[in-house]
Every structure is written in structure tokens, then in C-alpha cells.
Fold Sorting nexin 9a.
Amino acid sequence: MCAQVIYDFSAEPGNNELTVREGETVTVLNQNVGGGWIEAQNSRGESGLVPEDYLQVSVCLFITDYTPKQCDDDDDGEWDEEWDDARSTGGYGETTGEEEGEATGRNTHTHMKISLNKFAFSKIPNPEVYLLAKLPPKGKDRLAIYMGDVGPVWLYPQSPLDCVVADPKKGSKMYGLKSYIEYQVTPNTTNRPVNHRYKHFDWLYERLLEKFGSAIPIPSLPDKQVTGRFEEEFIKMRMERLQGWMCRMCRHPVVSNSDVFQLFLTYRDEKEWKTGKRRAEKDECVGPMVFSTIDPEAPELDIIEVEQKCELFSRFTKEMDDGVKDLLNVGNIHWKRCTGPLRKEYQKIGKAFQNLSSVFNTSGYTGEATLTDALTAAGKTYEEISQIVAEQPRKDLHFLMETNNEYKGLLGCFPDTIGVHKAAIEKVREGDKMVAAGKITTQDKGTMAKRISIMCYSLQAEMNHFHSNRIYDYNRVMQLYLEEQIRFYETVRGGKRVGSIKW
Amino acid sequence: MCAQVIYDFSAEPGNNELTVREGETVTVLNQNVGGGWIEAQNSRGESGLVPEDYLQVSVCLFITDYTPKQCDDDDDGEWDEEWDDARSTGGYGETTGEEEGEATGRNTHTHMKISLNKFAFSKIPNPEVYLLAKLPPKGKDRLAIYMGDVGPVWLYPQSPLDCVVADPKKGSKMYGLKSYIEYQVTPNTTNRPVNHRYKHFDWLYERLLEKFGSAIPIPSLPDKQVTGRFEEEFIKMRMERLQGWMCRMCRHPVVSNSDVFQLFLTYRDEKEWKTGKRRAEKDECVGPMVFSTIDPEAPELDIIEVEQKCELFSRFTKEMDDGVKDLLNVGNIHWKRCTGPLRKEYQKIGKAFQNLSSVFNTSGYTGEATLTDALTAAGKTYEEISQIVAEQPRKDLHFLMETNNEYKGLLGCFPDTIGVHKAAIEKVREGDKMVAAGKITTQDKGTMAKRISIMCYSLQAEMNHFHSNRIYDYNRVMQLYLEEQIRFYETVRGGKRVGSIKW
């Protein structure tokens, strides 16, 4: 695999890092280093760590056209387990990439297909299909938008949906030649577990993206930032992140209420699953057409207002994306310092104290014990501090980083979602010209104005959903982070007293 | 000034350090960087910081023979103020060097003389003068050694001598062309202050070294590790270190009781000072002859026992010297990390939180205030932590480093002192051969055996003095250090709660 460098990165010398320049192409040596780092090699043969955010990983073995992918349970042979999990995030120069899949065991494969960065070949869906289309009669799947205290909001269910992803189990097929992991997913509505493999989650993601992507940013599945080197750790980490992804989907009133999502959570047997799948794959109300199911109970918005709101959301998500990446970046650096140089330095201080204690013990002078005990205790305390400092990131930074990573992924989807709206605004602005050219009627122009207003209500509802989730998530993560930090300083301080008590 | 590299040092990249190899010669750019670092430039023109312990600084302008230096108050012109303070420490590859002296003001000088590393030209005093000399009749200045619980000990005074060095005042002479600093020294015996310039301390050091150096390690004056860049800071630092040096001398029963030390502390007028000085400079009982004044009330020691003890002390002081230097080294590195990269990193984390808070503030969503306040508070707390972390070394490491620096200086004197004993053992071991060759009589041989036993009691008394002081000093410094460390973690933890209280 190779990667395109998307930002300049200057290596901190002595930290096994690699300086790279924007536009450079590097070879990926190890994508599973962890902590948000990738080991890469440049054209001069130098190798070292580069933050994964700075690289756009792609497959450089051979390039094939992107073929839409289906989850066909009867044709597992074509999509080899090790390669069917790759997913792109898109957005602001996001990292995309392949990664080692579920089956790292004795799975052998005779051929492989490579799923490429989808967004490299796709374009933002054309909103014209909705703006000018003759709409089908209103069906039952209407998406309601109400005016809440904060403005337009989706209709939220009385009791929120939730689910638990647990109990990963290894399965195999084709006489043990192919192995996979199956997760148990239990929704709080039925309380009845259903089993899903990663590829089913992936299929769900594809459906949600296709159906709602123009109106709702659908975050990609967590499959890139894999920090576990070993299979068990990997499975655990993936499960935790699938849980996080499912939670976020459950919390979304539109997504959680959709047929395809309900199917995924509540199918009762293989037959129901297969039938539901076929129906979902044949759904024609996808892409910008999803707006045709939206009914805002509010007056039509002026195009200028629409544009302003769109601009505001675009700017906010871009700026938040920058802020989140900045935090992830310093977080990564701090993580590395704590587990690397700082740990070693405290160890050295500890050793220096203990060495001095050993030397003092050889003095042959009486009445030395109190001092040498104290020096040894201080030395050991420093070695403990070294441990505590090195382990601390896993306790506090981890959750902060995971949440921000999740938001990085989510924010990476906004440009595409907002892009549909911007393209629609463009189209509506051309309305007069199009009428003059005889391409559309005056009535069409009126329809477009009405529909872009509907789109804008949808975007506002989605932004309000995003904001309320964001406030909830960041409140929670900051509280946990600060509590852990306090606990950290208390632990170290406590450790010190152990060293001091002997005085 | 240039410097010889005495140990390999690998620069930590990105920290403005310079990699140097043992034996290399570098140019000293700035000796007053502080924190135990010297800014140096290698022959390839690269420059950076090197720990001062790794360099042996010398003057490379021109080399003159070492001329014994006298403190002649009437001849200030010859020893220019800016250059008369340099002193060497000797010992295990000690840093020696010149430094900017007291008068950094408007002092101009037309010529300068350079005092060189004395030990580069001196040899260890020949103990033969004592071992074989016909001794003068026993005078009144006898040095008593008793058998204490820990073995041979010096006779300690009932109430220990102490003094306060304070109130540095700038004086000038030669119509203001030359300026100097005068310190007030007040002993607890007379409680009457006397005034001394640095050069007088230096004169005292020279006398003590000359008189007692063979039996007692006399630490050099604190004039090398000058961390203050500004005159006031420099004067304050020098005063504190002169105070430390005087305290150590006061605590020594032999030194504190000597005529020359008493003269320094208690002279009543210029005449008494000058008369006393002349007498001290004419003292003939110096070097190894000091052993002739020692009266141990104990049975004669076997040469094998003498040699074993000498070896033990030699090994102990060498190993402690290594341990102390190791601690100073990691201490320096830690100091630099706290005030450098760590400070910056906490600042960046603080800024990242605050940036995110600013972005969130632009959301236009209501009910954001609690979160943005908390993020801002967390960000500010991190900036405070950055400050606390950067200032911490001055609070705790400082005293630990100062004490260890003092011991580094003291331990650096042991090789010379122990060297006299080793040379004497060598001489006594040759006794039979010398008798056979007719160089000495059998009676002489007996005298030598008796005298080396006396020397050994003296060395034991001195080692016991060293050990008891060492235990006292290190107990004290460790306690203070750990207390400050606890206070540090409590402060940071307290700071956190400020950030958290808003939740």
C-alpha cells in the first residue's frame, strides 16, 4: 500500500518519526502501529512514523474501476474476508485505507479484489433529480420536521432506541478455509439478539449512505484506526467502535426509524433478512430524493436565508473539523511523549536515586539505613510514576481521542452532505436564466424554490441534531477526562507520600 | 575560551543540543546559559548546548605557567577584578573554567592575567616530607582523633561554629574605575560582622587547600556554575553558594578551628587582618606536614589494613561521584524537558481546548454556554499547568541539584587527598628495599610504618566526618525535594478541580 501526503509533517527528531511534505508519495510499512500513527517509508528509503491524519492511504497494487458492492451471502468467495472491510471516509482530506480484516488465522486466499476509495470516483449526488422531478405520490414513510426551541428539529421518538453489540464469536465456512467474526446485536426494543458479521454492518452503512447521505452525514464504519496488533485486541477494539457507531445511528431519529435499520436490528429469521435486504437494495427513494419524503410544517424560506444558513453550517463544521484535528494531533504527540521519553526519564531518575542508595549502602558507616531506605523508596516511587505516566493515556486520553476520532469521521461527511445543498442553491440561482432559455417553466422555478426551502429545513434539523449530540458527547468526554486527570495527579501524589512516609 | 570534551554526549534532537565526542575540542560560546548547560560550537561550526559536566573548560587565548597566587590588597591592579576569581576543582575530570567576575559594570581593564587550571600543572604533594622528615617539636596546634562509635573521629567542638554571609555591597576603588562586591560575614561566636570580597574567600580557600589538602578535601569556591545572566541574580547566586561553602567549612572541626579560618571570621581591624594573613602565608606546617600535628590515641595499624581502608574510601568516593553525576545529568535533562517541550505541549493542549471552545461558541445553538465555559476552563487550566510544570524545577530540582553540585565539587577533591595516602603506602611498601639499598635505616622504616598509621587514622576520621555530613545533607535535601513534589502534584490537582468545578 502507498499513501499520499496531504499535509506537511516535520518529524520530532529522536522519536522515530519521518518528515514528509504535502504531495509526496510514501509506502505504508505498518498501519497498525497504534495511537494514530502509521509507519511509512519515503522514496529515499528513510522510514518512520507519520500521523495517520497526514496521509491518504490508497492501494497501489493495481487500480480497477469502482464497482458498487453488494452484500451477497451466497457469494463469499468473490469478496475475500481480508479485503471486504475497507471503507473510505471522504471529506476534508481524510485518511482512507485498507486494513487487515477479521480473519488473520489460517485463512488462505487465492485471489483478492480491492475496494477503492469510493469518493475518488463518485461525485456529489446531483440534486436536480429532486428539485425538478415529478414526485411520486406521498408514501407512508414521511419524515416530519417540527419547530422546536432551537429551530427546525426532527421528530424524536418517545423512548430512544439503543442496542448492545457484544459477544464476538469466531465462525468458519467452506470447511474451515474461511473464518469470520460474528457479533451479537441486541436492541432495547425487542431485547432479542441478532447476529451480524462485519460485512453486514458494512452493507447497512452502504444502504444508509445511499438513502440518507444527501440529508444526513452517515459516518463511515470504524475500520481504519485499528490500534490492536493482536487478533483479540483487534476484535475487541472493532467491537467497541461498532458499538459506538451503532449508538450514534440509534440516536438519530431518522436513521433509527428507517426500515433498513429496523430490519438490521430485528429480523427474525434468515428469510426475513434476505427479503428485507432485497427490498432495501431496490429502494428508489435514495440520494436527493430523500428530501421528497420530508414535510416541514413551516413557511417557505427565502433563497438568501437558505444560502446563509448553508454557509454557516459549512463554516462551522470545517472549523470544528480543524479544531478536532488539532486536538487529536497534540493528543497524539502527548500520548507519545508520556509513553516514550517521559516514561524513560522518570525511570532514569528512579534509577539514579536507587543507584545512589546502593552506593551509600557500601559506605560501611552505621546509621545509614533510614537514608538509603528513603532513597530507594524515592527511586521506586519514580519508577512507579514512570509506569503511571506511561499508562495514563490509556485511561484518560483514550476516550478523549476516541470521541474526537468519531467526530473527525462524522465531520468528514459534512462536505458531501452540504455539497448537495450547495449544488441545489446553485441550480435554484440559475432559475431565471433557465426560464429565459426555455429549459424550465416559471412554475418549475417556483417548485425549485419551495423544494430548496424544504432541503434547508432538513439541513437545519440535522445541524440541530448534530449540535445537541455534540454538546452531550463533549460534556461527557470532558468530564470523564478531567476526572481521570484529577485521579492521575492524586495517584502520583499518593505514591509520593509512600516514598516520604519513611522519613 | 575553549573546552575539552571529557565524556561522549549525544544531543537529544530538537532540543538545541550538540553531540560531542570524548577528546574533541569545542569553543565555548556562552557559559552562563544556566541549568548546568554550556553553549558550545564544534570545529564544523555547529553549535548547541552541552552539559557542563561533560566539558573541561580552559582558556585557549594563551598559556602561561601557573604562578602561585597571593591575595595582595595593595596590588589590585595586577589581578584584574574580572579575572581573579577563576578556580579549578580538580578531581574526576571536573569542569574548570573562567567566568565573568564581580564587576560587570563600568569596569574597564587594560590588561588581564589568566589563572589556569592549577591541577594541570601541580602534582599530588609528596608525602615523603612527612614520612621521613625529622619532625619539629610538638606545637600547640595538635589535631586530636578519638575512637567514636563509628571508629576514628575528629574532636568536635561543644557548640558548632556557624556564620551568615549576607548584605552584598558594591564598592569601588581607583576613582571608580574598578568596582567590587563586599559581603558581610557574621560568625555565631562573636556575632560581629566582618567584610570580605570574593578574592578574600579565594585567598582563604588557597590557604586551607595548602594547609589541609593532604588530609581533608577542601571543596573549591563556588564560582563556576553561575546561572544568573544578570548582575543582581549573579551576586545573589554567588552569595548563596559562598554561604553554603562557609557553612561546610564551619561544620568541619579541623578547618573551623584553624587559625587562618578564625582570622577570616573574627579579625577586628585592618592591621590584625594583614598581620594574620602574613603569618598564614608563612605557615610551614602545610601539605603532608599537617599529619605531624595529628595525635590519634589508638594502636598502630598494619599496612595491609591501611591499604584496604584507603581502597575502600577511594572506591566509595569514586562510585558516589558517578552516582551524583548521573543524578545531576538526568536532573538537567528533566529540567530542560519541563521548561521546554513539556511546557509547550501543555500550552498546545490548552490552546486546542480553547480553540474548540471558540468554534463551539460560533454554533448559534442555544444551551452551549456550560460546555464552552468548561472547555475554556480546561484550556486555561492546561495553560496554568504549563506554567506550573515550567516553574517546578526552580522549586524542587534546584535544591537537589545545588546539593549534588556541592557534593560533586567535594568528591572531586578526594582523588588528590586520597592520592597523598596512596603515594605514602607506596613509599612504605618500598621500605625493605630502601633499607637493603642503604637509603634509610631500619629505624626510619619503623617511623614510616607508625606515620602511615597516623595518616590512616586521619583519613578514617575524615571519611567518618564526610559520611555523617552526607547523611545529614541528603536526608534534608530528599525530604525537601519530596515535599515540594507532593506540593506540585497537589497544586496541579487543585488546578484541575478549578477547571472541573464548573461542570
